[in-house]
Amino acid sequence: LVQVLHSIGQCLDKNLQSDIIYLDFAKAFDSVDHQILLRKLKSYGVTGRLLDWFRDYLSGRTHRVVVEGVPSSWVPVISGVPQGSILGPILFAVFINDLPEVISNGSSEAMYADDTKLFRNINSTTDGDCLQESLSNLDTWSHDNNIKFNALKCKVLSVTRKKYPATYNYHLGSSSLLRVRKEKDLGIIVTDNLLWNSHIQMITAKANKMLGLLRRTCPLLTETKIRRSLYLSLVKSKLCYGTEIWSPSNVSLKVKIERIQRRATRWILRSRTGEIS
Fold it and tell me: Which PROSITE patterns does this entry report, sorted A to Z (predicted)?
């Protein structure tokens, strides 16, 4: 994410427009075709007894649904990787590892687990056509690999300072993609002007809410070390996530964050307003 936003930020400084297409796999981890996955493992050099082990690991699983205490009959699991397991994310990464091979020249992709995005500098309709070509190639790739994109959740964000940005209507199959002015990317709210007001508003609201919860539920907790540990794990963790990306240069945004830290300090030390300089 740092690398992607750094690249887009450099383009923004040159007054260039960048279009980002956020893609969403429909039931990503549950849709992995076992036979295709095993074929890809073999192509990457996994053979013999190790490949047989993976085949046994994926096969023979069953599941059922229980509604109000009444269970359904057991049915075999014919797709998907076990979620919550150590191998699940690794196997999914192997499954989509060849996805970048279908991206057209000039367009770039970034992947983290099941979060995938395309982006490209847009100077003309030709650049939009090239990005659409990559999107169409991905649509073909998804059909070939028996995994679908949820077009309703795929979105387009144009990052630019231009008063009249170039607008290209991207589509996935027969579905047009929704244009947005901001989108949450790995927990960071990215806006069309690459400012961080919306993100800081979100994290300060969450941190304030959590700090208020601690103040209400732990009034009898007097141990300073425990209060500090609670603050670091439950409040400060929300404020510090991704600071390499959004660290504010605006004084008013810094004040918002510092105000929460001052409230937390008073709670940790059990002091009143004005007692800490």
Answer: RT_POL
* CATH code of the domain occupying 1-29+95-191: 3.30.70
Task: Report, as an integer, the average pLDDT of 255-268.
Answer: 92
Q: From the CB of residue 255, how many other CB atoms can be counted at a distance below 10 Å? A: 10
How far is it, in rounded angstroms, from Cα 172 to Cα 95? 21
Q: How far is C-alpha 172 from the geometric centre of its chain's CA atoms?
A: 20
Of 10, 8, 37, 17, the residue nearest 160 (C-alpha): 17
- Domain segments of the chain: what residues? 1-29+95-191, 196-269
Chain-centre distance for alpha carbon 81: 19
Tokens at 262, concatenated:
């001052």
For residues 74-92, give the mean pLDDT.
88
| pLDDT exceeds 80 at position 120 | yes
